[in-house]
Amino acid sequence: MINRIRARLRSGFKSSSGRLEEFEHDARALLGLHPDDTDERLAGEVTSDLRSSPGKSAELELLRRLLARRMGCPEPALGLFGVGLLHLLKHKAEEGVPIRLDQAADIEGVASRLEQGAADPDDAARAGAFVRFLLDTYGVDGMLAFACAMQPGALLDDVAQQATGKPLLMLTLQWSESLSREQPGKGLFPFVVWTIGLLRPYRFFCTLLVIGILIQTAYATFMPIWLNELFDDGITAQNATVIWHTLAYLFGGFLVTSAAGVAIDFSVSTLGPKALNDVRTQVFDKLLALSSRSLNHFKSGDLVSMFSADMQIMENAIVRAVPGIVSKSFLMLGSLITAVILDWRMAVATISLLVIAFWLPRQVGRIAVRAAYARKVQDGKLAGYIKESILLLPVIRTLDIGAHRRVLFDEHTDEVYKASYKQYLMGELTGRVTVFAVSAAQLGIIGLGAVLSLNGTVSGGVVVAYIGLLLAFGGSAGAIAGLLPPAIQAVGSWQRINTVLAQPEEASATRPGTPFHEPLRRVAFNDVSFSYNGDSLNLQGVSLDAPTPRRIALVGPSGSGKSTVINLLSRNYDVMSGSILLNDTDVRDIDSQSLRALMAVVNQDTTLFEGSIAYNIRIGRIDATDQEVEQAARAAEIHNFIMTLPNGYETHVGEGGKLLSGGQRQRVVIARALLRNPKILLLDEATSALDAEAESAINSTLSRVSTDRSMFSVTHRLASCPDMDLICVFKDGVMVEHGKHHDLLRLDGVYAGMWEKQADISIANEGQDVDISVERLRKIPLFASAPPADLERLRSLLKVEEVAADTVLIKEGTTSGRFYIIARGSVESSVMLDDGTALSMEVLEVGDFFGEFALLEGIPNPTTCRSRHPCLLLSLSRQELRRIADLGRSSEEQTPLEKEIAATLDRRLDAKLDELMRRRLELRKATAAGASRQT
């Protein structure tokens, strides 16, 4: 705000031509041109040319000429980029000019309207936001490439593809993802208006409240008049009748006003909880309707905080602060009306002084509102950090980073302290400044009244009435000042809640479709492409036509797009291009209830709801009978276990289901899915979080229950693939292969390579026995040149380890550890950044190896390796390897095998360090771009 005032003050002392020259200087700097190149200045030319057209915008005309002449932009681009740049430059001194998330769309319509001069009121802000996005993401060169590609007749999709390498849909998604999810700042008055709208449905209590406030206002209005009559016509004139009548009015008014106060208290005590329950319902309904894309932008800690702390603060404001502010405002208004009735000259002075008195608190109040919102943001961050620390406490202990997490915690609490200090200081200062300013105005008015009384201009009764009036006015102002801090806190909470309420809802909630009652005959993907954030395509041109019932396996490396297929088919997200058909109907045209009834999803997250086993199964179909619940449990092969429990199906599972084992929770989830009797069963790594014994049992169950329905199964373990009707292989978002097991092996492609890595690793006896072939060991670069006899010895030295999820196996920077080969599960390799966050380097799966640098003496591990799921591993220590190859010898003493292993490790270390530097450089660039968007 201060910067904006300074900018306007500076521009106010310049001529119009001077302001245009300064504007051109800023525009050139923004576009990367030399800002002080006077030989190419256009300001004077534009000023001269527009003297005969005073209605045209000189700044817009200057930008259009600058873009056309200096940047070579064609005519169709001048509207979008001229108006967009103008909007940015005009608002450069402000904190930001946000647009709603739903406005980050239809850039074609915006460009067309701006080119034709028929823009909507919001189009300038949308153009400015789009230009800002292009500048932040692609730089000046990228923005100009987009503008220069907008040749006459060119489709904007082709323009986006040519300038950024992305279709317009992806670019628009990337733009939307770059926008802040926070709502623009709002003041106290909009909050009061919102509160009044929230209370409107409860007419009886609102009417009672209004009547009470009006009675109090009427009493405050008439009291000074009665005091004037009491003093002038009663006491001064020694008229007992007037005195007793006036005292009766005062006493009677006091009783009525007291009753009105009780009515007000009764009304607000009822209205507050009712209104806040409505808000809770709105927010909860919104959460249920939010699209997955929108929900991903909120931390669970923030959302929980909204339902607890934020709602409590708002309820306190609605019960106490808002009614008090409204009531006292009416009293102050009544006092001003009375002032005019008593003496217009003193009334003019009163109003003038009070206008001045309330100006300063208003300015401080704006800062206080922003401080209150900032405090709520910091509270949410701290809550999220604490929740994350509790969930990852085993990892924190294993990594021994408790001290590091404490440092980060101290940083969070320090930020909370700073935000709290500013919030309370500005809130209290708002009240303090209000009282000070009103008190100063009171003294000025009393002094004026005394002077006028001495001159005989006003009577003593008027002065006495004015003193009473000012006391009432000051009391009301003081009460408002005391109520402002909690009201300002409530504004911050309200803005956070409004941030959620303003998010786009799931498409199926806003565009209901038609019921789907026909028998399911086929599931088809027609040239489907999709992106989560617009940076890259997670699926590209996927086509598949599968008659039902059919069992389909989706395989491929991590991040290849397998789970995305499940998300699109279940319509957690909608495709960007192409279509997904059930029979011949697009899933987007089917109403959500019919679509959900056709499907059931079983994923790796086995978290259960608080309640009994029966409840957790029955929520698959709420109207299911006890017999149907039992049948589903029998089908999932968990009925016998349930019957061994003391309370049977009524046994409570505990928070998240922690009273059951992982395999038992997974069977409950499967029973829930089977209770729906789905036509399509979607399995997303359904057994990855289980141990080998549980996985084997669950896979047998899934194989049996999927015989009469279609099944899409995402899996890293290929052991079940030979029995599948179809295997779809994904890599980098593309379906590179599809067919049956033997056909894909003959192709000798991606699937054959994955199968080869896994087939030579056998797991028997429900995970107790793990073996690897000599041929598979030779394919590991470290042992490629080892003699067969050494490989046999090495194979016999490998130990089997079973580890739980989130186990740290290798710690970055240490020189200890073991060499591992993954027989089951997956492991994430990451490095720690300076800010304490982990940067993921790669995800290793069955057949991959890691920890090879632990075989070398004194070489620190470049990454931290942590199990993502329960894993079966084959491991080897440095000491065990010495029985075959001692890497600690000097190069002159080493055998050819030892030299080959050492050289291979050197090459791999160099490659890993190069990859680490590349990833960190990319992250630094992305962080810098994000910071530039925020500023």
Give a quick precis of the structure.
With 935 residues, the protein is of the alpha+beta class. It contains 32 helices and 20 strands.
Task: Characterise this structure.
With 935 residues, the protein is of the alpha+beta class. 59% of the residues lie in helices and 11% in strands. The strands form 5 sheets. A 6-stranded mixed sheet has the order 6-7-8-3-9-10, with helices on both faces. Strands 2-1-4-5 form a 4-stranded antiparallel sheet, with helices on one face. Strands 13-20-15-18 form a 4-stranded antiparallel sheet. Helix 4 (58-70) crosses helix 5 (75-90), helix 5 packs across helix 6 (107-116) and helix 6 (107-116) crosses helix 7 (123-148). The longest helix has 53 residues, at 402-454. The radius of gyration is 36 Å and the shape is globular.
